[in-house]
Amino acid sequence: MSLIYICKAAKNDLDQIMPIIDEAKKFLKEDGNPQWQIGYPDADAINADIDQDAA
């Protein structure tokens, strides 16, 4: 069994977060799902969530 660790993102995590989000956007598009196809979420949105301590 593998362990999964979850922690809140910090601003210095953005370089690791954005490629994951970009890959998810690509997957959704290839699957015909329109979600996340108009730019959101982008780095500014993620930074805003981090600033607001969003869960």
In short:
The protein has 55 residues and is mainly α.
Q: Give the low-confidence spans.
A: none
The number of strands is 0
* Mean model confidence by pLDDT: 94
**Net shape:** globular
Helix content: 40-55%
Characterise the protein shown here.
With 55 residues, the chain is an all-alpha fold. Helices cover 47% and strands 0% of the residues.
Keywords:
55 residues; mainly alpha; single chain
Q: Which SSEs are present, and which pair or pack?
A:
Elements: H1 14-30, H2 43-51
